[in-house]
């Protein structure tokens, strides 16, 4: 605790700088793999703190390495990208930024998921660690990842030689701001965030006039039967204690009321919490789709494409226990065990590439009074903005202090004095 106090004693002096950095990042969001301005700010700051910096990893990824004698190596990760969302928070530092999207159209951009909090918190932690090198021994690695929202940023860094360009960590740490009261810190051993798989399924029929269905193989009926049948995977093929979600978000077929089309396209999303359940559900989807097409006499086999994939985030038990104990000692009653979350992340690919354990936790970002009033009225779902909402904007304090402190306390739990 003396070591923790020594490192965190510098937080008051840098608080104003961090608040200014956060507001600047919030005003200037950037989409995945286009975080050029953010990455430069990160690189410049780390160099100022005395870190050995490597940038441009996987496009815009950055790592800073602070070697401080013999001891463990701790890697802390923050994601940098924003979302194509138009902000409506009304804050004086709200984003009005736009970027040209992949389709060539202008898109509004907003830090609607709180990655600006993550970047600011890790910059704060990196600065405190550099200012108090006498209080710890080892190597601290600050990693800033691009394109988490697209699920390809971690792999982009790995493909660009991350494991050869950074020291192998003994543990990897990460956090996410969530719609809990500001000041809240929540850890969870084992399963924490779900895996997410998005699929595009094209079923093929034979088109005909709407008045002559006998001449057709109707892909609309085929798709409808598939959608209904998919709902039985969770309700009839998984145990009641096994959480999973199968959501059909889009069906598209045909162009007129009296024309039976040649094909139908189904887009769906799957959420699971472990690889065994994930594989079971994905295999069940393929089995059902192929069987329904066969039963309908489809002239061609269906096409099943995976359009996005995020791995499950399963925290290492021992690493989480160590961090949870440190949080309990530092945060007291504000340290909690957090519930399973249905959001998804690609962060776990980074420690897996290094064969290192990891733990990932949540911090609150919602005004505590607003949250308490919503809880009293039973209207949390209606009154508390969630991540990816155009109204999502963590309160600056105590969110930033909590994020900086949590990352610093977690890192120090691994360093010998």
Distance between the termini: 11 Å
Proportion in helices:
25-40%
Overall spatial form: elongated
**Mean pLDDT over all positions:** 97
Strand arrangement across the biggest beta sheet: 1-2-6-3-7-18-8-17
Largest sheet composition: 8 strands, mixed
Structural class: alpha+beta
| Tally of contiguous helical segments | 13
The beta-strand count equals 18
Q: If you compute it from the alpha carbons, what radius of gyration comes out, rounded to the nearest whole angstrom?
A: 24 Å
Question: How would you describe this structure to a colleague?
Answer:
- With 417 residues, this protein is of the alpha+beta class.
- It is built from 13 helices and 18 strands.
- It has helices at 2-8, 11-27, 36-49, 115-131, 153-159, 162-165, 219-237, 275-295, 317-331, 349-354, 368-377, 380-383, 399-412, and strands at 52-57, 61-68, 73-79, 98-100, 106-108, 138-145, 171-181, 185-187, 190-193, 195-204, 208-209, 245-253, 259-260, 263-272, 303-310, 313-315, 335-337, 358-366.
- Strands 1-2-6-3-7-18-8-17 form an 8-stranded mixed β-sheet, with helices on both faces.
- Helix 1 (2-8) packs across helix 13, helix 4 packs across helix 13 (399-412) and helix 9 (317-331) crosses helix 13.
């Amino acid at each position: 605790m003396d070591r923790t106090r020594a490192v965190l004693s510098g937080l008051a002096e840098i608080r104003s700088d961090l608040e200014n950095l956060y507001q600047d990042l919030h005003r200037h969001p950037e989409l995945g793999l286009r975080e050029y301005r953010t990455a430069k700010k990160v690189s410049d700051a780390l160099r100022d703190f005395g870190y050995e910096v490597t940038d441009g990893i996987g496009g815009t990824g950055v790592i800073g390495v602070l070697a401080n004698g013999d001891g463990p190596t701790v890697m802390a990760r923050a994601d940098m990208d924003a979302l194509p969302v138009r902000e409506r928070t009304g804050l004086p530092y709200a984003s009005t930024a736009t970027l040209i999207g992949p389709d060539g159209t202008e898109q509004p951009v907003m830090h609607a998921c709180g990655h600006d909090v993550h970047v600011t918190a890790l910059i704060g932690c990196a600065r405190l660690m550099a200012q108090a090198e006498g209080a710890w021994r080892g190597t601290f690695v600050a990693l800033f990842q691009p394109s988490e929202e697209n699920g390809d940023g971690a792999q982009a860094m790995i493909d660009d030689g991350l494991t050869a360009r950074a020291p192998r960590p003994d543990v990897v740490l990460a956090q996410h701001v969530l719609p809990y009261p500001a000041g809240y810190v929540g850890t969870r051993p084992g399963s924490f965030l779900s895996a997410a798989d998005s699929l595009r399924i094209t079923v093929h029929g034979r088109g005909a006039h709407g008045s002559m269905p006998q001449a057709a193989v109707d892909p609309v009926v085929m798709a409808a039967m598939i959608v209904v049948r998919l709902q039985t995977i969770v309700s009839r093929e998984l145990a009641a204690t096994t959480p999973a979600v199968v959501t059909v978000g889009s069906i598209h077929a045909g162009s007129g009321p009296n024309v039976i089309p040649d094909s139908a396209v189904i887009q769906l999303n799957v959420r699971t919490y472990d690889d065994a359940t994930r594989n079971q559900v994905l295999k069940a989807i393929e089995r059902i789709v192929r069987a329904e097409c066969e039963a309908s006499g489809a002239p061609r086999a269906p096409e099943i494409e995976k359009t996005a994939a995020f791995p499950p985030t399963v925290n290492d038990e021992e690493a989480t226990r160590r961090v949870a104990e440190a949080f309990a000692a530092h945060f007291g009653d504000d340290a909690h065990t957090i519930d399973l979350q249905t959001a998804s992340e690609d962060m776990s690919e980074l420690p897996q590439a290094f064969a290192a354990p990891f733990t990932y936790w949540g911090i609150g970002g919602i005004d505590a009074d607003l949250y308490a009033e919503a809880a009293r009225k039973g209207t949390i779902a209606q009154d508390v903005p969630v991540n990816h909402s155009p109204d999502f904007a963590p309160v600056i304090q105590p969110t930033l202090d909590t994020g900086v402190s949590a990352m610093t306390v977690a890192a120090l739990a691994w360093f010998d004095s």
